[in-house]
Each structure stands twice: as C-alpha cells, then as structure tokens.
Amino acid sequence: MTVRVVPRAALDAWVNDLVQRQKVYGVQLKEERFAFGPLVRAADLRLDYDVTLLPPKKYFLPQREVLSRFDRFKVEFEPVLADEPFVLLGVHPYDFEAIRQLDAIFSRNHPDAHYLTRRRNATIVVSDVETPSQDVFAACMGTATADCMDGWDVLLTRIADATYAVEARTEKGTALVGQIQGTKGAGEADLEQRRAVWDRNRDVLKKHQLRMNPEDLPDLLARSYDHPVWEEKAALCYSCGSCNLVCPTCYCFDVADELHWDLQTGERTRHWDGCMLEKFAEVAGGHNFRGGKAARYRHRYYRKGKWIHDLTGDIACVGCGRCISACTAKIANPVEVFNRLMEATS
Amino acid sequence: MRKPRIGIFDFACCEGCQLQIVNLEEEILDLLGVVTPVEWREAMSDQAEKGESFDIALVEGSITREEDAERLREIRARAKFLIALGACATIGGVNKLKNNFGMNDVKETVYGEAADMPHLETMPTKALHEVVQVDYMVHGCPIEAAELAHVVRTLLAGKTPTLPAYPVCVECKLKENACRFEFGEICLGPITRAGCGARCPSEGSWCFGCRGLVDDPNTQAAREVMAHYGKTIDDLRGKMLLFNSK
Amino acid sequence: MSEATVQNRAPAGADAPRSIYLPEPATLVDVRPMTKQEKFFRFQMARAEGMKYMPGQFAEISLPGIGECPISISSSPTRNGDGSFEMVIRSAGAVTAALHRLSPGDRVGVRGPFGTHFPVEDEFRGKDLVFICGGIGLVPVRSAIHYVLDQRDDYRKITVLFGARSPEERLFIGELYDLKTRKDVFFQETVDVADPTWGGNVGVITTLMPQLRLEADRTVVIICGPPIMYKFVLLELRKLQVANRNIYVSLERHMKCGVGKCGHCQINGLYACQDGPVFRYADISSVREAI
C-alpha cells in the first residue's frame, strides 16, 4: 500500500472508534513510566513513550496463561486457546523485531498453538520511536527502524507535530488503515520527512555504543567462555531474574497446576521463568546443573548472542535496553559486557 | 472421605493473619467445605478436647516465653502437618526487634516499674521453626489469604506446595511495576522471598522484607549496590531491622 | 484472573491447532515396588496404537492437580506388542511421590515420546556393545539392552556393567541375575558400599573397567548414571582407546516441556529434550555444560 498522511486528530478519532469495536492494547502512562494496557480512549495513548516496562510480548506469551483445564479424578485435559482478535498499538521497531524472533521460535519444531493463536489474532501497529529511552541501543542492533523489517501490519511515523505517516504492509493492516477517515496520499516531502525520522533514529537510538557488528557476536562468544567478566559481574547478581523478565526475546517458562476449591477441577498454567533464577536448572532430587551465579549469568549472554543464533539465525538482543534499566545491581548491560569481551580477544 | 481436621492457634502476634483467613469472605465457605475446624479460638465457641489430634495445624505468632514453647511442642505432637502462618511465626518478624536489646531493658521499657513481676517474664523471640519442626511456611505480614487458600488446596490434593526460592523482584516485574530504586528508595525486594505478588511495590511502596530473606541472598552485592544509589550498607541494615532482626 | 483466562475459548473448526502441552490419557496396568525409593510401573495408552517409541526416549507423565514430570521409558519396543510401556520412577518430588500412591486401573496423562534414542538399528548393529550403568541410569538403558537381546544376532559381544550405591538399591534384581547367567552376555556388577548380604564386588563402577577387553574400533559404549559418574567412566574409556564417536551417553536434565521451548533442560545451546537425552559423545565432548 502507498503511504498516507493523517493528522493526529483524525488518528485519535479512529482510535476512539476502534476501541468501541474491538480489543485494543496501547501504551499508556504507569507510575511515571510507560506500559502497554487495554486502551479505552485515544487521549490515553502515548505514542511519544520512550520504552515500556514490559515488552508487548506479554500479549502473545502472557505472564500467566491457562494451557488447559483438567479434571483430577477423570484425568482429562481440555485445551484452552485464546481466540479474541486484538490490535496492538504503538509497538517500537525493536520490540517488533523481538516478536518476529519469537514467531520463529514458537513456529519451528513442535509449533506452540497457544502462542501462535494469539499471534494470528493480533494486528500490530508499529510506531517509530519519538523519544529515545535512557538505555536504548537499538541502532547498534539494526532494530532502530522498521523499514527493512517484514511482518508488521501498519507502520506509524510522526513526521510533524500533529501529523503522522501511515503505511500498511499486510491485508489486515490495509483493512485497519482503511478505517481511518481524513487521510491523504503522502507527497514526496512527507516521505522525505519520514526518512528523516528514520535517519535520526538510526543515529540517536544508541545510548550505549556496541563496538562490533551484532553478527560478530556468535564468534566472539564462542571464544569467551572462560572470560573473567562472567565471575566478576555475577558476583553482584541478586539472581532476581529482572533482566530475563523484562527482555522481549526471553521466553523460558514453567508450568504449574492450580486446583479449584472442589479439589477436582483446575487449570494447568504457564508462567514466565528465567535462567538467572537460582533453581532454574535444578532437577528432582536436588542436583542443580547451573548452580553457580556466573554460570547462569554467562548462559543468559550466550542465549542472546549465540545459542538462539545457532537455533534460528537471530541475534536475540534487540537493543531495547530494558535489562540495563531493570537491573538493580547494574550488571546487566549487554553492550558493556560484549565490548569487554571484544577488548580481550581482538 | 473424612474431611481433614484443622486447628488454628496463635502466639505473640496481632492475630492479623487469622483475620486474613476470615477475610477470605465467600471463600471461607469453600474452605469449610473441605476441612473441619476443630480448634480456633478466634472464630469458634466450641474447642477441641485437650490432646485431640488434627491433620493440619495453622500456627500464628512468635515464641517469646518458655510456656509458649511448651504449648507449641504440644500442638506439634498433635498435628500431622504444621504450617507457620505469617511473619511472626515464620521468621519472628516484628517481634524480633526486641532481640536487638537486653531482655531487662526491654521489660523496663515496656512495663516500667512492673517489669519484675513474674508473669511478665520474657525471652528473646523465636520463630516456630527455632522451637519445633515446621512443615510449611506461609510468609507475610499479614499473610496473603489467596496463598493460604492455595496451600490448603494443594495439601489436600496430596502435594506439598513449593515455597518460592526467588526474590520479590520477579513478581514486581511480572506486575510491571517501576523499580522503587529508581525513585531513590531502598527496597528489600532483591533479597526478600517472593510469594506476595509484590504487594507493597505494587502499591507504590518499597518492600519491607516481611517474607524473610531468600535462601542465598547476595549480601556481597549489597554494599556496592547501595553505593551506586548513594546509600550505605547501614541504610540497608536499618530497613532490615523491622522484619529481619536476628 | 488474567485477561487471557477470561477471554479463552477453544477455537472451532477441524484445522484448529493442537496444543503440544495436552496430555493423552493412559492407564496404569501394573505397579510393583522395586527398592525403598523406586517403583516399577506399566502404562497403557488409551489410543489404539499404543506408545510408539525407541530405546532411550522419555515421556512426560501428568497427574492433574499435581503436575507433570519427565520419565525415561524402560521397556523395549520389541516387548510391547500390546502398546504398553514401562517406567521405573523414583519418588523425588511432588509428582513422583503422587505416582507412587497410584494403583492399577488409575489413570495418568502422557505426552511423548520425546527426544533422541539409542541407535540400536544403526550404529549399534554389528558392533560389540558395552553398557555402563550407575543406579537408576539402568532404567533407560534397560530398554536398549532388551532391544539388542531380542535381536541378538544383529550385534556381536554384549557387555553390561552395573553399579549401585548399595545392594538394596539394585534395580531389576531378577533381570540382573538373568544377565549374569546368560552365555551370550558378559555381566559384572558392583556396589559402592556393601552390606552383610553382599558377596560381590565392592567399589565404584570404574573399578570394573580395567578387566574389559575391548576391540576399540568395533565397540560402542553406552553410559548412563548419576552426573558425577560420566567424567570418571570417560577417563577409563580413553585409556581403553574408545573413540568419542563410539560412545553414547544419556543425560539427565529438567525436561519440563519436552519440545525444546521452556529452556529448563538446556545444555549450553542444546536441548536435552530434543537434541538428547541420548547424545553421541563426540557431538558434545566440547559442550562445556554437558558432562
């Protein structure tokens, strides 16, 4: 589809109409920070947000979700799959890249119907970053802009104070954009302004500067297994899993059964888990295959820069910077760690 | 099938955790549908015969006198499964504040001239597991009613519930809270056992540490981390006194 | 309740995707005590074709309300004409403790089989086979031992070494005796710590290895045991000049989901549930978290 231009007022009118007709999740203010949440009116939508506390991953792999309902005495399980369509409004390009990576993970080899059903029901409106967050380094990871990414439905770019460029790439996206009243075709000047936003974002979304190409990470890590940085950084680690939990590409989970008061029926639920938590690799009987902090700490970086790459070809860090901000001990900066490895081995 | 018999007991505490059971509201009927309470001073008029046994004892409060210890041992002997209920019982909690002082000073401060009366005898506070074997702990000040409900249901299904081994930060992140450290506060979340669903940070307050420390808190990290936020290790220790005095 | 819970409805239509986490019904047909900690179980799937698996694979066993856990299959597909399968389960957690309380006729949920298997139809054929098992490491290996014994002519010399911590922890005592008395199997066993009833070897399993007379180039070695055992057995095998490509190990990890998603069983970049649990040692000798 061609690019259209829409005034903010028209965009707001469309959002106000959309939330009446279907489930919409958008970025809103939360405790002086931002979070995706159910949107009830356009006025609450903050497309100028810097970064959300949790990535929009939570709509595809919720913090807690029901996998099945069971009957304990009949020993029967009934699957539960979420099938409500929804619109996800204002996903930053780096977070979209993370969703694309999760799509690959959950589609390959034993596809995960719970994730994929949610994903199929989503229409994703990506919005270019207006305000860089304090720790973002998406520009170092090639995820500052969505122009070269595939799979998003709509891309929204603020090209002037109250004017947005809007482009749809999929059928779902085209249908959605078609509902916006008062758009007009973008002229060359509009497109130039949009390119200027992208150029700016590729320039400014690097509050931390990675001194290598992301593609070099698998090889760098391959020769860094015994580097002292793992022990050094992990010495301060609280094993609190914050870096895992805020990460848009982390997807480890645990499963638990919850019984109702009838002590017969209940639900099997899936919860987020994290490889930085102490018991993550423990087996029944008590042996912990990753009992040391440094081993867990290293594992996380290898997941981001090598193990996932070995699996799908993706570098599983998109440069959102959430782990840097979320880590109380301030040891979770991937850029700092990777640069450090680079120094040692170059 | 015979419904499991349950006894609810209290020692030095505010009885707020028992109140949380009452606060289950409609769910209390569900609870009574699956267990038979045989002894519960706060909510029942008829009490069990002395020496009668029960399947589950829920015990609230700390041990602060020798006769308390004796009564707890007697409860333990009658119970198949003993659950410590709330911070006073699981970690000593606020009651352990007095352990920072000499017992005579404590008595004089509280009772003044009457401090020497024999019935006011006291000893350093102990959590239940420091006196008898405790099978499970429902932490918190007060306990989370939903957690107790979960524990009871899980036990009745034939499974011992698992105590979270991870800190409150996990639940805080799941709740999508902003970190209290970012607001210049010292939060005990990184070293405190989870299970509360990050109750206090979700209400905009730092974590008071009422569920006790995780098994392996990184005390080594604390000094450097405090320095990063312009605080000292004593600032942290001060926050820990309230629930985590020795 | 989460948003997800409230809005969930099972999608209609024949092409609705199937959840990979949904257990299938099975029935416990036989259960016997084995040791203080372990019980023997035989399950039968409700589905007509029964369980189709190969030696070394595992399945996830569910008790709704308690949970799910991965258990090695201990029977050989050569002996499960009726589609049933056997397991030996140590009571070590909530699910296994609850499984120990089951009686014949009780139902369980089953997912699987999952994972790689011993190459009994490929690399094992025409080779001398040496099985080295410690403790409940015998459980998955028993499937392969039965398999090769049932097709005895396809393999050359068969050796089984078994080590238990103590005589009372020995599994499948009757079958161990059969192995000992068979003419076409060389069998040796030992216990770490003897008791007055024990007249056999005493010492860790590696003490049995110096007496092995191997033709290294036509021998395949299979190892399964507690985490600590592999290192020492591999050292002995190096002395016997067995190449890493001729060694197979079955590794224990927490295989929570079984389908390479949840992350718990990861060994560096490998998933024990999908890339394993059976690995050719040459493929993992440089994987640092493996052994």
Keywords:
heterotrimer, A: 346 residues, alpha+beta, 2 domains, 8-stranded mixed sheet, 4-stranded antiparallel sheet, 12 helices, 21% strand, C: 291 residues, alpha/beta, Elongation Factor Tu (Ef-tu), domain 3, Rossmann fold, 7-stranded mixed sheet, 6-stranded antiparallel sheet, 6 helices, 18% helix, disordered N terminus
Topology summary:
The complex is a heterotrimer of chains A (346), B (246) and C (291).
Chain A: E1 4-7, H1 8-21, E2 23-30, E3 33-38, E4 64-71, E5 76-79, E6 86-91, H2 93-107, H3 113-120, E7 122-127, H4 138-141, E8 154-160, E9 163-168, H5 171-178, E10 184-185, H6 188-204, H7 217-222, H8 229-234, H9 242-245, E11 253-259, E12 265-272, H10 293-312, H11 322-326, H12 334-345
Chain B: E1 5-10, H1 16-22, H2 26-34, E2 36-40, E3 54-60, H3 66-78, E4 79-85, H4 87-90, H5 103-111, E5 136-138, H6 145-156, H7 168-174, H8 199-202, H9 219-228, H10 233-244
Parallel strand pairs in B: 1-2, 1-3, 3-4, 4-5
Chain C: H1 3-7, E1 24-33, E2 38-45, E3 58-63, E4 67-72, E5 84-90, H2 94-100, E6 107-114, E7 128-134, H3 138-150, E8 158-164, H4 173-181, E9 185-191, E10 201-202, E11 219-224, H5 227-239, E12 247-250, E13 266-267, E14 270-271, E15 278-280, H6 281-284
Parallel strand pairs in C: 7-8, 7-11, 8-9, 9-10, 11-12
Antiparallel strand pairs in C: 1-2, 1-6, 2-5, 3-4, 3-6, 12-15, 13-14
- Largest sheet descriptor of chain B: 5 strands, parallel
Task: Tell me which CATH architecture of the largest domain in chain C applies here.
Answer: 3-Layer(aba) Sandwich
* Poorly predicted spans of chain B: none
* Largest interchain contact: A-C, 64 and 52 residues
CATH topology of the largest domain in chain B: Rossmann fold
Tell me the total number of β-strands of chain C.
Answer: 15
Q: Strand order of the main beta sheet of chain B, please?
A: 2-1-3-4-5
Percent range of helical residues of chain C: 10-25%
By oligomeric state, this entry counts as heterotrimer
Question: Could you say what the CATH topology of the largest domain in chain C is called?
Answer: Rossmann fold
Largest sheet of chain C: 7 strands, mixed
**H and E order of chain C:** HEEEEEHEEHEHEEEHEEEEH
Give the percentage of residues in beta strands of chain C: 25-35%
Name of the CATH superfamily of the largest domain in chain B:
NADH:ubiquinone oxidoreductase-like, 20kDa subunit
Give average pLDDT of chain C, whole number. Answer: 93
Mean pLDDT of chain B: 92
Question: Termini of chain B, distance in Å?
Answer: 44 Å
Radius of gyration of chain C: 20 Å
